[in-house]
Design goal:
This protein is mainly alpha-helical. It has 5 helices and no strands.
């Protein structure tokens, strides 16, 4: 995420004095709620959806994720790369390529 966008999200929260409501638990709940609203975009069809609505709900998820990163003092690149390292170990290309099986079933 570009620094300009991060600053805009932070300013939005700060200007409204909403940080007081942003406990890790509240942010986790908000991420889940917004993710479910994103899922609702595909409720009745995997192919017939409103991309503008998808973009709005996905943006809500990302904004709350950014807020949670800030609240917990986490670096998004650091935690994503740590998780990717774990995923690469659990899903080696030679076993997982073209398969949707869980790592323990490969």
């Amino acid at each position: 995420m570009k620094q300009e966008t991060i600053d805009r999200i932070r300013r939005f929260t700060s200007d409204r004095d909403w940080d007081q409501f942003h406990s890790p638990a509240n942010l986790a709940k908000s991420i889940s709620i917004e993710a479910n609203e994103l899922l609702e975009c595909f409720q009745w069809s995997d192919t017939d959806y409103d991309i503008s609505h998808v973009k709005e709900e996905l943006a809500d998820v990302l904004v709350y994720c950014r807020d949670m990163l800030d609240k917990l003092g986490l670096d998004e690149d650091e935690i994503i790369n740590a998780k990717m390292t774990m995923n690469e170990a659990k899903y080696p290309v030679e076993k997982a390529k073209g398969k949707a099986d869980k790592y323990n079933l490969l």
